[in-house]
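S.,

Sequence below, as promised.
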Amino acid sequence: MRHMTIVILLFLCGCAHEPLFTESDLRIYSGSGSGVKPAASDSLVCISYNIAFSEKLDQALLDLAQETLPQQPDVLLLQEMDAEGTTYMADRLGMNYCYFPSFIHPHHGRLFGNAVLSPWPLSQVRTVSLPHANPLTDNYRTALAVDVQMERGIVQVVSAHNATLIVDLDKRVQQVVVMRDSLVSPTGPVIVGGDFNTGTNYEGMLFRRVMRQAGFREARPAKGRTARGGPLDFFGYHLKLDHIYYRELEFLSSGVCRETSASDHFPIWSVFQWRTP
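The prediction came back faster than expected:
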């Protein structure tokens, strides 16, 4: 116990020296792509990828080019990004982007937040600060919502990254409720995706129930993990942290691409179809 106390104190002391998160950092970063023409289709492809600390970006681009992933997604949701990394990914993919930081992470002293990329025009950007800070760092996470103007109409898209298991489950459920109720309009097609940090099947079921209360369903990926569990994998405990929820769209297919190496998370994907009037 004494050794654990020392470790915690050292961690807290290290956090005390993290760079200051200023008002100039807390803004929406956005830009236009280099002209990749979106594919006209009745389907809508969404990929979500938590790229750990926005570090191995060139490998992440190779990951997204895997044959087991749909190519030319209409929506790409990214988590753990910084502003420069988001711009880099958008430039290489030729996509428009919006990015909003949550805080400066002590891991690397850079911004840490969520992004939405798309070859389609982006507008009506909304953000919300999620309740309940990390008890060790006092940092609050945020969620980012953007309207994507596709050929068939507008779809509201939310890139989400909930707190880790260090925050109590009931508080993480409240984060989902705040995100759901603050960023999503009462009507219209919506996709909410990202890293929800659901550490158990029970938590995944609980989050599905919360989203279902607002008319959402989960685009369930193939069975198994969406992240590497390290030693947990040895014991057959598969982390299923990442999810995509949808409303007022027809679900077609989904999956997880596990042939990737840029992150401890795997890209997840879903394909939807527009509802006929």
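Confidence is low (pLDDT under 50) at residues 1-17.

Coffee later?
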